[in-house]
Amino acid sequence: MLSTAELEIATASLTYGETVLERQTYRAQVRELETQWQEWLNEEHAPFLSSQSANEIYARAWEDGHASGYSEVESIYVDLASIVQRIFNNEGFN
């Protein structure tokens, strides 16, 4: 699993490449790093949720924040997860 800072460092070190194969390799590497990061986000900020629910939060955070970078996605993710946690607490689920 990778934190946001580790993800940013890892992706910055990758080279996009000139050939189709190099670009495909680059995209596969980024996807793998982002998957590890998503697992970290789920475990770090939403351990109280099922993986399906945490992935829903991630999808929304990604949709709303990826154009501004990984830190923005994390910020939105944390906000959404904290709202869900407060709802659970208010409804007596925890």
Could you characterize the architecture of this molecule?
- The chain is mostly helical and 94 residues long.
- It has one domain (4-91).
- Helix content is 77%, strand content 0%.
- It is built from four helices and no strands.
- The chain has helices spanning 4-12, 20-45, 51-65, 70-91.
- The chain starts with a helix and ends with a helix.
| CA(first)-CA(last) distance | 26 Å
DSSP strand count = 0
As residue ranges, the low-confidence spans are: none
Work out the helicity level: over 70%
Question: Given the helix and strand composition, which structural class is it?
Answer: mainly alpha
Number of helices: 4
Count of domains? 1
State Rg.
15 Å
Categorize the overall geometry.
elongated
Average pLDDT figure: 95
Tell me the fraction of residues in β-strands, as a range.
Answer: under 5%
Q: Give a quick account of the main beta sheet: strands, pairing sense, barrel closure.
A: none
- Encode the helix/strand succession as letters: HHHH
List keywords for this structure.
single chain; about 90 residues; mainly alpha; 4 helices; elongated
Furnish the topology, listing elements before pairings.
Layout: H1 4-12, H2 20-45, H3 51-65, H4 70-91
Helix pairs in contact: 1-2, 3-4
Structure summary:
This protein is mainly alpha-helical. The chain contains four helices and no strands. The chain starts with a helix and ends with a helix.
